[in-house]
Design brief:
By secondary structure, this protein is an alpha+beta fold. It is built from eleven helices and eight strands. 43% of the residues lie in helices and 19% in strands. Strands 1, 2, 3, 4, 5, 6, 7 and 8 form an eight-stranded mixed sheet that branches. The chain is globular.
Length: 318
């Protein structure tokens, strides 16, 4: 199940299709896309990132850690799983509506790869060609530029559109300089990992043991647990719990079902255990999550309303 976010939900400033917001505790999310482009900067924590370039291509599953930055263009969809203290900046932009210097594409070989939506990545490379890592100094500089964009958009002093665009241009330059000219190939996909994750995606509500999973891919339970954690940063059981919480979050957003019923439908037999797992992974209770999402939807449905205030990520990696 996925959804697509429209431009009008964010770009309300005439002549400047640029919007920035931070998430101090990014929730696990379902697969979703945008009618615009998005630059994501990870400033703390970790998660499992799922990325699918087109409906026809296979989704890639990779760990996501502090300092990483990536760019996504439509029609790609992505989502976050197993979020652990994940704090990110989201920089939303429409490259066709921003007046960036033409010299960027002329002088930087990495610009087209990251920021031109028309660029066609190599088949099967996933997000590897639009993803890089900033060092501590680069991460701090990126956050300074992001906060400058926010300040210009909030204060609206004379020339604020030009100043915000200039800060975004410098951010683009920072990312392009950090990226290698020849991007690294995405790590080879492991058949056993795809088999396990595909199975769990559709059977997360079932009571499945580690032994059952190991038998599916002809591995010992200990070997599977070790290899799975090395690849995705969590055990198979933790991955299942994350999928259950993710699906529960979707149902809290999209259905009027009770919290207890949702917990049971996603595989939790104890409603109290469900609430604890939900809060441990998302940092918020199921009822508070539902209330926050409804408040966000209400703000988006009103053109004159501002999006609800979100906590800003910290200055650097924790």
């Amino acid at each position: 199940m996925s959804w697509n976010e429209p431009k009008q939900a964010y770009f309300r400033q005439p002549g400047l299709p640029l919007f920035v917001f931070g998430m101090d505790s990014q929730f696990t999310t379902g697969m979703h896309g945008h009618e615009f482009s998005e630059l994501v900067l990870v400033v703390r924590g970790r998660a499992v990132h799922v990325f699918q370039p087109t409906p026809e291509e296979e989704a890639s599953v990779t760990p996501l850690e502090c300092g990483e930055v990536f760019v996504i263009h439509p029609p790609a969809v992505h989502g976050y799983r197993n979020t652990d203290c994940l704090s990110i900046w989201n920089v939303l932009f429409d490259p066709n509506g921003l007046e960036l210097p033409a010299s960027l594409s002329d002088t930087l070989s990495t610009y087209r790869r990251f920021f031109d939506p028309r660029y066609q990545p190599q088949a099967g490379c996933g997000l590897a060609d639009r993803r890089t890592r900033l060092d501590a100094a680069g991460l701090n500089r990126a956050q300074t530029l992001i906060r400058r964009i926010i300040r210009e958009q909030q204060q609206r002093s004379p020339g604020w559109r030009l100043a915000a665009t200039a800060a975004f241009t410098e951010l683009v330059l920072l990312v392009c300089r950090a990226a290698p000219a020849d991007f690294p190939e995405e790590p080879p996909r492991h058949g056993w990992l795809t088999t396990i994750t595909d199975f769990l995606e559709t059977n997360f509500a079932r009571q499945v043991s580690l032994g059952d999973l190991a038998e599916m891919v002809h591995m010992s339970p200990s070997s599977l647990s070790h290899s799975f954690k090395k690849r995705l940063g969590c055990s198979p059981i933790e991955y299942v719990l994350s999928l259950r919480v993710q699906r529960a979050a979707e149902m809290l957003r999209d259905t009027p079902r009770s919290i207890a019923e949702i917990g049971e439908l996603v595989g939790f037999t104890d409603s109290n255990y469900f609430s604890r797992q939900f809060k441990n992974r998302l940092g918020i209770s199921p009822s508070a999550y539902r209330q926050r999402y409804r408040a966000l939807e209400a703000s988006r449905s009103c053109p004159t309303a501002k999006p609800p205030a979100l906590h800003m990520p910290p200055e650097c990696c924790g």
